[in-house]
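Quiz preparation item.
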């Protein structure tokens, strides 16, 4: 069953909601950047990067379709921030260890056999998103400068 496309007003409203929520997430993450990470919160840098990526996704919804170059640039920024997120997860500082919690306490567990292939997949995914970001920027630069005219 095909779904009906959103009207332009609803598309703009959804874009502003996505921008507001994602900038809120990015702001909360920015507040926690200098502090040591808490057990129940993810890395603040990853939250900041993810929040900005979703903010650019919302901006794509707000910009009119006739502004091809601006939309392509926001798309390239979104993919770039997703690539930065994968880069941070794959290469960022901090120890990569497997932990498990039992009875409310956290206990260290020996690395599993599949941990190294998992790291290899994460690094290859990061490299793939870096290439996609490069491709998106090339496409954004080649997008037409002028608005498309309706003849």
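Solution:
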């Amino acid at each position: 069953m095909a779904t009906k496309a959103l009207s332009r007003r609803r598309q703009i409203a959804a874009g502003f909601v996505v921008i507001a929520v994602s900038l809120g997430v990015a702001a909360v993450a920015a507040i926690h950047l200098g502090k040591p990470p808490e057990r129940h919160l993810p890395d603040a840098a990853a939250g900041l990067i993810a929040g900005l990526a979703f903010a650019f996704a919302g901006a794509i919804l707000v910009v009119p379709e006739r502004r091809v170059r601006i939309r392509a640039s926001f798309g390239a920024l979104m993919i770039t921030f997703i690539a930065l997120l994968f880069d941070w997860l794959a290469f960022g500082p901090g120890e990569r260890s497997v932990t498990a919690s039992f009875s409310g306490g956290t206990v260290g567990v020996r690395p599993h056999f599949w941990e190294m292939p998992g790291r290899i997949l994460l690094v290859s995914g990061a490299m793939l998103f870096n290439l996609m970001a490069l491709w998106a920027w090339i496409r954004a630069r080649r997008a037409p400068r002028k608005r498309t005219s309706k003849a």
